[in-house]
Design a protein that fits this description.
With 453 residues, the chain is an alpha/beta fold. It has 3 domains: 82 residues, Udp-n-acetylmuramoylalanyl-d-glutamate--2,6- Diaminopimelate Ligase, Chain: A, domain 1, CATH 3.40.1390.10; 210 residues, Mur-like, catalytic domain (UDP-N-acetylmuramoyl-L-alanine:D-glutamate ligase); 136 residues, Mur ligase, C-terminal domain (Protein-Tyrosine Phosphatase, Chain A), CATH 3.90.190. The protein has 16 helices and 22 strands. Strands 9-10-8-11-12-13-14-15-16 form a 9-stranded mixed beta sheet. The radius of gyration is 24 Å and the shape is globular. The two termini are 41 Å apart. The model has no long low-confidence stretch (mean pLDDT 95).
């Protein structure tokens, strides 16, 4: 935050200064009392399990000021700002700061791939611009306002990720961000438990354009059938990327070799060769999206493409243990689409050993969860995988599909991560490649840590 004082915070939130100096300078915002820094405004969020108002005094030992919705009068050395709701006040602060930001913002959303797409867009734009991008996973109604407050006057473009968990949230984020351009990566079944249908999910994701610049462009993945259906049906300017011949930006002649992806990005009469340092068809699509967005900002595709030979993603990590096996750590989260994408990466890695998929439950899939897991199993039977290891109740449906397809694939079912660890440590051999993936709640990063050690 630049040139922001407690007086500005009071104005932005329509709050009341209960005590302290209104001229106190605010340099950042924190919602975590353990991570607060000098100059920070502490925003105590009331969650389902924790009310952060309990940590105000601890936060103010270091921080500059605090919001509160529970104090009505107090005498303290540092400012307390009374607001009706701290979460809403945080969004009000983000909106207040946004009105002074002159730089264009690219908003990125989608069911799967939004973090990697955002990261690739920032990489492409970074070839010629000073870029701010979403830090960590700050893509929510709490995270996005904080990101807006961290954009500096030195930044030339911002790329902000917008996530959701229920209906109406993307509209709120669109109103906060007011993007110049927007990108929708995929329409999957993540959050279908809340939104019930993929059509509802699509409508929610496409609301990212509600507050987009009138001259802005919506970039859509043409390989996603749900987004391809919207061709010619949207009122805003739309640009499609993908592998389809009708896409405005498309990948052709895709090849995978020695842990890298190679393709040609075609736009009109222009054709640019791209070397991408990560595997997977989905990553090729993410890269094409990045090249399309950077081209919209006047950065030549050839210049932007040069950044991807050394690209390092944030989600999926390939760990090659010397003289041992290789681990594909994709334990951040899981959905049917991302599970299939990771399995594709597993099969793209050249090895003289075995390819082993270790898969856990996928959460928040609603009443059709068993069917979605079963479909992943059906997909696996088409792949050159040697062993399938599952953990969790729902993941058993992955094995069920494999067995009902009379696949020769070896399958193993375990009830907890410790059993999986014991099995893998006893069976993995040099040159084997093992993919570990499941929803966050399955804590499958524990398996990766044990294998690394």
């Amino acid at each position: 935050m630049e040139n922001i004082t407690v007086r500005d915070i009071v104005k932005a939130t329509n709050g009341t200064l209960l005590c302290g100096d209104e001229n106190t300078i605010i340099t950042d915002i924190s919602i975590n009392s353990r991570e607060i820094k000098e100059g920070d405004l502490f925003v105590p969020i009331i969650g389902e399990k924790v009310n952060a108002h309990s940590y105000i005094e601890q936060a103010l030992e270091v921080g500059a000021a605090t919001l509160t919705s529970e104090h009505f009068a107090i005498s303290a050395a540092k400012p307390y700002i009374k607001v009706k709701d701290t979460k809403q006040a945080l969004q009000d602060i983000g909106a207040y700061v946004r009105q002074f930001l002159q730089l264009p913002i690219v908003a990125v959303t989608g069911s799967v791939g939004k973090t990697t797409t955002r990261n690739m867009i920032a990489t492409a734009l970074g070839s010629q611009k000073k870029v701010f991008e979403t830090q960590k996973n700050c893509n929510s109604q709490i995270g996005v306002p904080i990101m807006l407050c961290r954009i500096s006057s030195a930044d030339e473009i911002a790329v902000l990720e917008c996530g959701m968990s229920e209906e109406g949230q993307i509209h709120i984020l669109s109103d906060l961000v007011k993007p110049k351009h927007a990108v929708v990566s995929t329409i999957g079944v993540a959050h279908i438990e809340q939104l019930k249908t993929r059509e509802n999910i699509r409508r929610e994701k496409l609301s990212i354009i509600d507050c987009m610049d009138e001259d802005g462009t919506l970039f859509l993945n043409g390989d996603d059938s749900m987004l391809a259906e919207m061709r010619g049906k949207l009122l805003c300017k739309t640009c499609y990327y993908g592998t389809q011949s009708w896409c405005d930006y498309r990948a052709e002649n895709i090849q995978f070799d020695n842990g890298r992806s190679y393709f040609e990005c075609v736009h009109g009469d222009e054709r640019v060769s791209v070397e991408l340092s990560v595997l997977g068809q989905h990553n090729v699509l993410n890269c094409v999206a990045a090249l399309a967005v950077s081209d919209a900002f006047g950065i030549p595709m050839e210049v932007a493409a040069g950044e991807f030979a050394h690209f390092h993603g944030m989600r999926q990590t390939i760990i090659q243990l010397e003289n041992r096996f290789t681990i594909i750590d994709d334990t951040y989260n899981a959905s049917p689409d991302s599970m299939k994408a990771s399995l594709d990466v597993l099969c793209r890695i050249e090895t003289e050993g075995r390819r082993i998929a270790v898969l856990g439950d996928m959460f928040e899939l609603g009443e059709n969860s068993e069917q979605y897991h079963y479909e992943v199993g059906e997909f696996i039977t088409t792949l050159p995988i040697h062993e399938l290891v599952v953990v969790g109740e729902q993941a058993k449906n992955i094995v069920k599909a494999v067995k009902e397809r009379d696949s020769k694939l070896k399958t193993y079912e375990f009830s907890d991560n410790e059993e999986v660890e014991m099995y893998l440590l006893g069976t993995l051999m040099p040159n084997d490649v093992v993919l570990v993936k499941g929803s966050n709640g399955m804590h499958m990063n524990e398996i990766v840590q044990v294998l690394k050690q």
